[in-house]
Amino acid sequence: MPAMACCVDAATARFPPGYAVATPAAGSSFLAPVPLSGVPPASNNVEASHWSPSLSAELYNIDGWGAPYFSVNESGNLSVRPYGAATLAHQEIDLLKIVKKVSDPKLLGGLGLQLPLIVRLPDVLKNRLQSLQSAFDLAVQSQGYGAHYQGVYPVKCNQDRFVVEDIVRFGSPFRFGLEAGSKPELLLAMSCLCKGNPQSLLICNGFKDAEYISLALLARNLALNTVIVLEQEEELDLVIDLSKKLSVRPVIGIRAKLRTKHSGHFGSTSGEKGKFGLTTTQILRVVRKLEQVDMLDCLQLLHFHIGSQIPSTALLSDGVGEAAQIYCELVRLGAHMQVIDIGGGLGIDYDGSKSSESDISVGYSLEDYASTVVEAVRLACDRRSVKHPVICSESGRAIVSHHSVLIFEAVSASTYESPAVSPFGLQYIVEGLPDEARADYENLSDAAMRGEYETCLLYADQLKQRCVDQFKDGSLGMEQLAAVDGLCDLVSKEIGAVDPVRTYHVNLSIFTSIPDFWGIGQIFPIVPIHRLDQRPSGRGILSDLTCDSDGRYYLGMFLGGAYEEAIGGLHNLFGGPSVVRVSQSDGPQSFAVTRAVPGPSCEDVLRVMQHEPELMFQTLKHRAEECVDGNSIAATASLAACARSFRNMPYLVVGASSCSMTAINNSGFYYCNEDAYNDPAAAEDEQWSYGVA
């Protein structure tokens, strides 16, 4: 008789001769649970003392997703290799030592800070920049390419002041620039690039209004190598009109909608149906209009974006090849083309699988990526006898992901334990079940006798659901329901249908710190940063409930330097929206706006990311005074416009009323008397009062 039958029949004491009541405490011969995936099976031959850090590294695939920046040291702690493969043994940084220094009380020589903690690693950031540049330099040299590579960093990936300033400083020797997608990002980039290489590109992407374009033209006037990329056809008219008014000759780029489409999760904005960019028909109209106003020489850059996290070089080659053909056509049409901007898409390997069939992995190296891009552009241009363009990329994820580690505590753990099942108590309970539930139990017992464990699960689920329904109807008591729960849980456990998973409570907010996890199901490596010289005993689930307990266990989330802080805080530095309070009214519109609060200004959101708007403005002021050649009127006008941009909201200004603009410029909020809206005349006049918050 199978052991499962012993478990079930214990309830009614119908035991064949020679069989005892089988319970876990009695050391029964129950079937062993299914081994946990990824965790070495328990064995009497594998003692904890035989475990090693190298086995932990293999278990968590650290060499797969973490190389060459993360490894397990001899102490069983996770360490950082700040210079990648060139890191010497004595240069490795033990993450646990960082945690101890940061969290220890000041009296013990620590900093007295509370976790969770983001550890930034500028050396890793510098190495990522150098590695990307070296990969393209190698491809250019080995293929005899006739131009060079110079990338830009898309600020939206992580707008933190020190991250952006580090990138500008580290990238200055090879003209590495910045990409902005909103007005506060543009202000940020302008300020930072004043201290960078004058040849570094400042790429202006995103939807644009007159203020955005005026800022970009001001940047051009400040001797910054600025390119205004047209995302919509109608932006061209603004560029033409404003450049004439400000007497600035712009450099213009076009974002093309390619037919090549990234089919993965991150490819939703790619393809000819994407929301950004111009179709071939629109590109031709732009060329004709620029020719009509004698500005075709201003068109110098072609931009496109296949999608983030491009999984394979085959897709990359297809997209770059298509774009290169458009570039050659623009040259043929008379544009003074100089740069092809391949956008983002350089992916990283989140799970270490090196797979080209996954949204969280990539099947290529930096060298493969660079070689594919250079080859695709070179072949297309050579076929058309077109001079090789400068190659630009907007690689953000690949630059900043590795340099940031989020460390948090697992402060308690819990496991679900099935209620104890007493054979004679259960017999009494079962006898009191309604007929249908008792029949389910009999079927469960018979299936166990036959050793049909899949059928056991079916009848156990059926019994449990029937009892739940009867409990809701009031025909079953709580004691009976609990007993049936215990029996069904025991059945599942003994045939290996339930993993013995522990829940670890971590002192962290997933919503705030890892927004891509709950938002799009993005996977990040989460690994213990210490005790990796000890054999893990089972699988765990992390629960972000704050709990205080003795015995802390530190974990690290890796590869989260791109987007997680920006999305959790201020993606694209757009800040929060304005807030209005609306009440019903007897006036002609049937409602009244009784309070309106403007959202954060560009100045506000920049300050949140540790930038100092006052110092940024002073930097731009000094540059303006240097560039206007004594023309104080021009300098004053430019600075006034710049100051307004700091004070205004980041969002586009579309048909703004004088009322709302006054609210923004005065950094206050509006209120009006609700009673006034009961008077139609007062409502039509829209009489507002300004109040101080």
TrEMBL record:
<keyword id="KW-0745">Spermidine biosynthesis</keyword>
<dbReference type="InterPro" id="IPR009006">
    <property type="entry name" value="Ala_racemase/Decarboxylase_C"/>
</dbReference>
<dbReference type="GO" id="GO:0008295">
    <property type="term" value="P:spermidine biosynthetic process"/>
</dbReference>
<comment type="similarity">
    <text>Belongs to the Orn/Lys/Arg decarboxylase class-II family. SpeA subfamily.</text>
</comment>
<protein>
    <recommendedName>
        <fullName>Arginine decarboxylase</fullName>
        <ecNumber>4.1.1.19</ecNumber>
    </recommendedName>
</protein>
<keyword id="KW-0456">Lyase</keyword>
<keyword id="KW-0663">Pyridoxal phosphate</keyword>
<keyword id="KW-0661">Putrescine biosynthesis</keyword>
<keyword id="KW-0210">Decarboxylase</keyword>
<feature type="modified residue" description="N6-(pyridoxal phosphate)lysine">
    <location>
        <position position="156"/>
    </location>
</feature>
<dbReference type="InterPro" id="IPR029066">
    <property type="entry name" value="PLP-binding_barrel"/>
</dbReference>
<dbReference type="GO" id="GO:0009446">
    <property type="term" value="P:putrescine biosynthetic process"/>
</dbReference>
<dbReference type="GO" id="GO:0008792">
    <property type="term" value="F:arginine decarboxylase activity"/>
</dbReference>
<dbReference type="InterPro" id="IPR000183">
    <property type="entry name" value="Orn/DAP/Arg_de-COase"/>
</dbReference>
<dbReference type="InterPro" id="IPR022644">
    <property type="entry name" value="De-COase2_N"/>
</dbReference>
<keyword id="KW-0460">Magnesium</keyword>
<dbReference type="GO" id="GO:0009409">
    <property type="term" value="P:response to cold"/>
</dbReference>
<dbReference type="InterPro" id="IPR022657">
    <property type="entry name" value="De-COase2_CS"/>
</dbReference>
<feature type="active site" description="Proton donor">
    <location>
        <position position="547"/>
    </location>
</feature>
<dbReference type="Pfam" id="PF02784">
    <property type="entry name" value="Orn_Arg_deC_N"/>
</dbReference>
<feature type="domain" description="Orn/DAP/Arg decarboxylase 2 N-terminal">
    <location>
        <begin position="148"/>
        <end position="401"/>
    </location>
</feature>
<dbReference type="GO" id="GO:0006527">
    <property type="term" value="P:L-arginine catabolic process"/>
</dbReference>
<dbReference type="InterPro" id="IPR002985">
    <property type="entry name" value="Arg_decrbxlase"/>
</dbReference>
<comment type="pathway">
    <text>Amine and polyamine biosynthesis; agmatine biosynthesis; agmatine from L-arginine: step 1/1.</text>
</comment>
<dbReference type="InterPro" id="IPR022653">
    <property type="entry name" value="De-COase2_pyr-phos_BS"/>
</dbReference>
